């Protein structure tokens, strides 16, 4: 299958928007059953210390040195972009959180064939439901919502499992030259940086898939004949 790798961070508003736009393109792509999507971890603020009492408006005002009103205006602008593609952002409720646990949870879900479902749950939990994604009980509930064993999710997160997988993704992002997210890599040949329109994603899918199919076309093998025996007992 042709691979599409997506580097993202679950607290990035354009990553959720980009997910929706890519999905819209994939839905129109006739060979979508031959495309494998793999989510990759990226951290916009790896040193962030989570404070569940601080909301996004306050956080942005402090980080960017602007007023609360200006921060709210910024969030409103992004929310309107999200609304245009059917996402109901409630950024006044969002809790800025260190996303390392969320990324480890996504890797656990990946190992159980539920990575895309996990990413959707994480985005919705952050941007719509105002949940703290650095909180293990919260992540356990998200896991249960997509059919994962809550006790196993809890055990994995409490024992820091999948931390190495996250670091591998971050290292690969450096090698790939990822400077911002979302970042889409198609067949390791072509990349799209940012939440482009579905038309751009569709054109890229068509282009890279045509190349992938040409290089992976299955056809009759050329056979060099030699002395051999058949099940019928004929040897020559």
TrEMBL record:
Checking Pfam families in the record gives: DSBA (PF01323)
- Identification of the protein by name: DsbA family oxidoreductase
Q: Please name the InterPro entries in this protein's record.
A: DSBA-like_thioredoxin_dom, Thioredoxin-like_sf
Instruction: Using the record's annotation, list all stretches that form the DSBA-like thioredoxin domain.
Output: 3-205
């Amino acid at each position: 299958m042709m691979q599409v790798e997506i580097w993202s961070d679950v607290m990035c508003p354009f990553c959720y928007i980009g997910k929706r736009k890519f999905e819209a393109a994939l839905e129109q792509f006739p060979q979508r059953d031959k495309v494998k999507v793999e989510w990759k971890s990226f951290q916009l603020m790896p040193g962030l210390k989570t404070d569940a009492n601080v909301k996004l408006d306050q956080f942005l005002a402090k980080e960017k040195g602007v007023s609360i009103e200006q921060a709210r205006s910024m969030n409103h602008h992004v929310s309107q972009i999200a609304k245009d593609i059917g996402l109901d952002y409630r950024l006044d409720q969002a809790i800025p959180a260190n996303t390392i646990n969320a990324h480890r949870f996504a890797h656990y879900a990946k190992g159980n064939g539920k990575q895309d479902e996990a990413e959707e749950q994480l985005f919705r939990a952050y941007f719509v439901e105002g949940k703290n994604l650095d909180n293990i009980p919260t992540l356990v509930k998200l896991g249960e919502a997509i059919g994962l064993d809550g006790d196993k999710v809890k055990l994995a997160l409490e024992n820091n499992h999948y931390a190495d997988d996250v670091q591998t993704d971050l290292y690969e992002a450096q090698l790939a030259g990822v400077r911002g997210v979302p970042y889409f890599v198609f067949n390791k040949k072509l990349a799209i940086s940012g939440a482009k329109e579905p038309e751009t994603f569709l054109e890229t899918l068509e282009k890279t898939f045509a190349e992938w199919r040409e290089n992976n076309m299955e056809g009759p093998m050329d056979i060099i004949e030699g002395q051999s025996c058949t099940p019928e007992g004929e040897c020559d």
